[in-house]
Design brief:
mainly alpha, two-stranded antiparallel sheet, 2 strands, 1% strand, transport, cell inner membrane, transmembrane
Length: 726
């Protein structure tokens, strides 16, 4: 943890005798606010991280815990590790002089007293219940547990905003937050394993549940701010404010209202924080993060990128096409679009600039390709698992349905890249600049873990069993590669998995707060009614409205949280319109994913711009244009179920072929390149019209699209024959 570099610090042209380009693609990026410990503290954190990942593997495969207890420990562990690793304020360096705001340490030390007292009370409650007490006295829960816990949590959070120390130093305010996180978890483990669990959401619920839930929600929001930024926190706070202001709002937003105690006695249950999002993060997501960490430890990411260079690097604009393939492979096992940009873009973006792409275009291609990794089956950046949990549709059906949309998305990005390379006369990379394809093919056994995962899933194994088999196979396969995984490497993989998991776990918990508000206030049902009213005027207008809401809810959020929130608000309304649940959820999922490249808040584009050195807003506009197929194809799910494999084989094949032809023409129309020449305005409009007709999928629309394409071709040919003006 102390000597890891940012990926962008690795050399991009370090080509040895074997011409291998990718080095340390698998290295874990170190966030700006992450502490880098040394000595004994480093060993302690490493042990905690290994224990956290091992706990999940043990509980999922050998000795399952009671469901709520498992999820409570899952969140508490992420909070503890998160507050240890991620600082609440920027670090100070030697140039800044001595550490600032020393008073935060003393106030934090004072706040540690009520935090420890609240934790002590949870053990006394446990002893009282063991002694036969049916219900803990209200005064004891309020004054000896609740208020001390809230006071300590509030002081710890506020002090952490001002506490600035060196990067290798831990902080007392964060120690307060760790104790409060443990106290919240301990209280819930005590109460939820008694009959008092049945009283949540009623006036009979112990008041301590509400105190613990308020503190727990605040801790989750604070760690979310540290690891994912303010976007999700602001949206979550807006929803929380709505709980108490909703009764005073007019129209469909109004509702009868919930008291503070009644709401918070339910929000930390399976109706909210412990609900679907945490159910998925504590099982499928954590397991596949461990799988991804094992792949990283065995340097499979380096192989993916080098294989892509060997296969596509020679073609015109080669590094951009490599970006598409490499980001698709890396992105499906990476839970965030922006994280995917950082891992592969640090290599591909400089090489794209080297062969002639502008800074803006290089960043845009990487952002669009990395975002596409989130819709790439079989893993789909964990989104498929949340969709399976929410809809009840088997995971294998979701993975199969995602195949054609993923092909269309990546084909569209490929055509865009190829046309731009042709239009500007870019070259590919030379033979002596690239890895040898023959050498890469000899190492194709490194794909075996992913193949085992796919085969196991389609043989009927559970997702957990399939993921575990794939993880074990990743270690076994590494024994045949130069990066063999022994005990030390396996422990390192478990450590990396915990660090990778913190962000997505806390984000899923924060999304659970929003989901809880939606389900407990009924705002989702009222939004469905509004969508039905819009659909009476026009069903297409209702879909467009749903698209904008999905993108708006997803802006600034990681994919997993974006989909979870949008699925709670938008998807039920689409289902009520008569759309199949799978189609409705794919519609929402796609727009939640592409919010990462949608201006003005495009996280993937901003990450790419940081590497390329281009203007962030210009990069987001360019990536939006490159990924434009992702904004059109979801509308076609509604009109043509064959795009989601919901038809006979002939109809599926015809839909794939015509849609591919459609995205080809869409790319030509958007970029202004067709039939090996620049296209004029009329030709571009004809191409876009033909593309929309071809993607739609009906027989007459396909024929009409072909006719328009022929007209565009003839117009383009005529313009090429026309003598150039001086």
């Amino acid at each position: 943890m102390t000597d890891k570099q940012h990926p962008e610090e690795h050399p991009v042209n370090d080509i040895g005798d074997d011409h291998v380009l990718a080095h340390d693609v698998d290295e874990e990026p170190v966030e700006a606010n992450r502490r880098l410990f040394e000595g004994g503290m480093l060993k302690l954190v490493t042990l905690l991280a290994i224990a956290y990942s091992s706990f999940h593997l043990y509980s999922l495969n050998i000795a399952p815990l009671e469901t709520w207890s498992f999820r409570i420990v899952h969140i508490a562990g992420a909070l503890v590790l998160g507050f240890i690793l991620f600082a609440g304020a920027r670090f100070v360096s030697a140039e800044d002089g001595p550490a600032r705001h020393r008073w935060t340490t003393w106030i934090g030390a004072v706040a540690l007293v009520p935090a420890l007292y609240a934790l002590y009370q949870t053990f006394s409650f446990h002893q009282m219940i063991l002694d036969g007490t049916q219900r803990v006295p209200v005064d004891l829960e309020t004054w000896h547990f609740g208020w001390p816990l809230l006071a300590a949590s509030a002081i710890g959070i506020v002090m952490s905003w001002f506490h600035q120390r060196e990067r290798s130093r831990f902080s007392v305010p964060d120690l307060v937050l760790i104790v409060c996180s443990v106290a919240v978890a301990a209280y819930f483990l005590v109460v939820y394993n008694t009959s008092m669990r049945m009283s949540t959401g009623t006036s009979f619920a112990p008041v301590g549940i509400s105190f613990a839930a308020i503190a727990g929600t605040a801790l989750i929001m604070e760690l979310t701010r540290r690891v994912a930024g303010l976007a999700l926190v602001i949206i979550g706070l807006v929803f929380l404010v709505y709980v108490f202001l909703g009764p005073y709002l007019p129209g469909f937003l109004g509702y009868p209202g919930l008291s503070v105690q009644r709401f918070f006695s339910q929000v930390y249950t399976d109706a909210g924080i412990l609900g679907p999002t945490t159910a998925v993060s504590s099982t499928y997501i954590i397991l596949f993060i461990v799988f991804a960490a094992f792949l990283q430890a065995s340097k499979v990411g380096d192989y993916f990128v080098n294989f892509a260079f060997a296969a596509a690097g020679r073609t015109r604009g080669g590094p951009a096409k490599v970006s598409i393939f490499a980001s698709g492979l890396m992105g499906m096992i990476n839970g965030t679009s922006a994280g995917n940009v950082v891992s592969t873009g640090s290599l591909t973006i400089p090489l794209m600039k080297k062969v002639g792409y502008s800074k803006r275009s290089a960043g845009a291609v990487e952002a669009a390709a990395s975002t596409g990794g989130q819709i790439m089956p079989p893993i789909m950046g964990a989104g498929a698992f949340i969709m399976a949990e929410i809809t009840g549709i088997p995971y294998t059906e979701i993975a199969i349905a995602a195949i054609i949309p993923a092909i269309l998305y990546f084909a569209s990005v490929y055509f865009m890249v190829d046309f731009e390379a042709a239009k500007t006369g870019m070259r590919g990379m030379r033979e002596d600049e690239l890895p040898k394809l023959k050498t890469m093919v000899k190492q194709c056994y490194l794909f075996v873990p992913i193949i085992i995962l796919i085969v196991a899933l389609f043989m009927g194994y559970s997702v957990i069993r399939a993921g575990t088999l794939a993880t074990v196979s990743a270690a076994v396969v590494s024994w045949f590669s130069p990066n063999k995984m022994g005990i030390r490497k396996i422990l390192e993989a478990l450590e990396i998995a915990s660090y990778m998991a913190i962000q997505i776990i806390v984000v899923c918990a924060a999304a659970g707060v929003i989901v809880g508000v939606i389900s407990l206030t009924g705002v989702g049902a009222r939004f469905s009614v509004l969508l039905l009213d819009v659909a009476e005027a026009s069903q297409l207008l209702a879909l467009i409205f749903a698209m904008f809401i999905s993108i708006l809810l997803g802006m600034g959020m990681p994919t997993t949280a974006a989909y979870a929130v949008a699925a709670s608000v938008v998807a039920p309304g689409l289902v009520q319109l008569g759309i199949e649940p799978l189609t409705a959820h794919f519609f929402v999922f796609y727009f939640a994913v592409v919010s990462a490249i949608t201006p003005p808040v495009a996280l993937a584009s901003y990450a790419a711009a940081g590497i390329s050195g281009a203007n962030a807003m210009e990069t987001s506009v360019a990536s939006f244009r490159i990924g434009i197929a992702a904004f059109i194809v979801p509308f076609m799910f509604f009109y043509n179920g064959a795009l989601l494999m919901d038809a006979g084989w002939f109809d599926i094949a015809r839909a794939l072929i015509t849609a591919l032809f459609g995205v080809y023409m869409l790319s030509g129309g958007v970029l202004g390149w067709f039939a090996r020449a620049s296209a004029g305005v009329i030709t571009r409009l004809l191409l876009i019209g033909a593309a929309l007709l071809m993607i739609e999928g009906g027989l007459w629309t396909d024929l009409s699209g072909i006719a328009l394409a022929v007209v565009a071709f003839l117009a383009q040919r005529q313009s090429k024959l026309r003598p150039a003006s001086t």
